[in-house]
Every structure is written in structure tokens, then in C-alpha cells.
Amino acid sequence: MKRRFNVYLYISIIFYLVVFGLFALKLSNLYNNHLKEINNTNRELRLRISSIYLASPQFESEFFRERMHQLLESHDNLVSIKIFSPEGSIQYSLVKKFKNTFGGYTDLVKDKFTHSFLVVYRSPISLGERNNFILQTSFRVISDKELYSLLKNLFFIIVVFLIVSIIYGLYLLTAKTKRGKVQSQGNLFSPLSGLVWEEYLDVTLEKLLQEIRDTGKDLSLAFISIDNMEEVKDRDNLYLQIARLLLNNFPSRTHIFEWKSGFALILPQIGVDESIKRMESFRQKVLEKLFPSYRATVSIGLSSRNGRNITHSTLTREASLALRKAIREGKNQVIAFKANPMKYRELFQKQS
């Protein structure tokens, strides 16, 4: 279940990165497209305001104010129009207020949320014979409707993913509960292979290490991988044949486990040298009995306690490293991780 959770975690991270990346890309494209339109609109506004002023060359005149209001309302994304004198003082100011969700009105120029979606232009404008005025226009690049539509789609996608995640989590929990009920009733073994469930490996290994922690007894762990499994036609039958060989050649059934697509074997009170001999003998039996029919071989990685005060995670990590080395260097062989107990004790004393 832990492995499935890790897979789900990686998928979730990738999912959120992709979703938020697409959201940012959509928002950026929308922003840039509207910005091009606004640039054209701003140029037109300069000409129209100049024409209005020529018809009535007074900022306070009713004609100028009425036409400017009409101009502001005719562009949905236009927020404000301001005209500054050459000295920098405001000669005319008109700001559009928008209805908010609470029934009131919002000044978008002062609103912190939408301010990041505003763009401001300052450009010289000719008003009759006076050429030194500055026109300042503010535009809202992305409207509330467009922004809320994007957020709504984002929210919908995330909610759907969360619902699927909850369903998947309930499925894993139910599956684990069902398996736990079967195992609590005394069935610790897979009905398919006859071996102990993989979930019991860490618990059993840690328990055995605790029992021998203050003694001089040893313990070894072997990971067994079937070589070139993807090339075998009858994989299930081959798996069962090797499982049967393990059960016939190693006395303690409770120490033989399903492990990934292979097997794990705990060898209590057996050091690394003796473990190498036994696992080499097992490898030869696989070769003799199964190679003629399945062209099957196995790679085996070993590690042992070897007088060290270690946890199950250290032992499994070392056995995994040994197995990867056996596979990488040609397969069909036994490789053991041999730790130096003296160096380990020195390192442990320095760290403590």
C-alpha cells in the first residue's frame, strides 16, 4: 500500500503542475491577446478625445462631459480617463465604477485584487492649439467574467481529481481491510503462491533483529529476482514453480515472502558466507529444473547483520543494492553486500 501511495503522490504532483501550468498559459494568452486590442483602442481614444475637445474646447462644458461619459461607457475594459496639464495638474478626471457581488460599486483603480490586471497608458495629446497635455487611460485587461470562468474550470478539474482520489483511497483502505481480516484469521500466506504476504516482510525482519540484538547471532536477507521475466510466456506458472522450489529447499515457510515480482527470504542465525553457499545451491537448482523448460535463471542479492546493530531498512537497502549489482553485471548470479562490522561500530560511535 505504501508503494501505491507513493505512486499516487507522484501522479498528484504531476497533475497539479500540469493543471496550474495550463491555467497560467491560458491566462497569459488571454492577457496578451487583450493587450493587443487595448493598444489599438488607446490610439483611437486619443483621436476621439481630441475631436470632442475641438467641438467644445472646455473641460467643464456639458457637451464635453457628456461625450466623455459616452466614450467611457462604450468600452467595457476602459476604467478611467485623466487629462493632465503640462505642469502636471489634473484638468479632467473620469473613473468608471463597477458593480460588485455585494450590490455595491468598486473603484477598480483602487481595488487591490484587480489592480494587477490593469494597464495604464500615458501619452501626449493635442487639444486644439495646446499640444502639451498628457492623456492617461487605464484599462482592465481581463474582465471578472473571464477570470471567474478560468477559475471555475480550474476548480471543477481539481474537485473531480479530489473525488477520484477519495474513491481510490477508499478502495485501497477497503482492500487493505479485507486483506487484514484474512490475515488476522490465520491466513498469512498468499493463496496463489503459498508464500507470506509482502506486507509482513518488514515487520518480521524487524522482530527477528530485535530478538538477536544483544546476542552474537547472525541473520541474512536475500532478494531473488527472476531474470528476463518479460520474455517468459507462462510467467505465472514459472513464478509458482520457483515458489515451490523455495518452499521445498528452505524449512521455515514463515520466512519466505512474495516481494515485488520476485521473492524475499530471511535466513535466521546464518551469516553471509553460509548464505552465499545456500543461495548459490538454490540458483543451481533453478538452473537445472527450470532452465530447460522456461530458459529461466535468477539473480540474488544478499546482506547480513554481521555483528552490527542495524534496522530492517538498512538490511533491505543493502540487499537491494546487491541485487541491482547482480542484475547489472550479467544476471544469473549471487552477490552479497559485505559490511565491515568494525568500521560500522566506529562510525556509529562517532555519530552517537
How does this model look, in words?
The protein is α+β, with helices and mostly antiparallel strands. The chain has two domains: 2-147, 2-Layer Sandwich (Beta-Lactamase), CATH 3.30.450; 198-351, Alpha-Beta Plaits. 53% of the residues lie in helices and 20% in strands. The strands form three sheets. The chain has a five-stranded mixed β-sheet with strand order 8-9-7-10-11, with helices on both faces. Helix 8 links the parallel strand 10 (298-304) and strand 11. Helix 1 (2-55) runs antiparallel to helix 4 (144-184).
Brief summary:
This protein has 352 residues and is of the alpha+beta class. The chain contains nine helices and eleven strands.
Coarse morphology: rod-shaped
Biggest pleated-sheet summary: 5 strands, mixed
**How many runs of DSSP E, i.e. beta strands?**
11
Compute the separation of the termini in Å: 34 Å
Please tell me how large the radius of gyration is. 38 Å
Percentage beta strand: 15-25%
Low-confidence stretches: 101-105, 181-185
Which superfamily, in CATH terms, is the homologous superfamily of the largest domain?
A: Reverse transcriptase/Diguanylate cyclase domain
The total tally of domains equals 2
How many helices does DSSP assign? 9
Task: Output the structural class.
Answer: alpha+beta
The CATH topology of the largest domain comes to Alpha-Beta Plaits
Helical residue percent band: 40-55%
Average predicted local confidence, pLDDT: 85
H/E series: HHEEEEHEEHHEHEEHEHEH
Name of the CATH first level of the largest domain: Alpha Beta
What is the correct CATH architecture of the largest domain?
A: 2-Layer Sandwich
Strand order of the largest sheet: 8-9-7-10-11
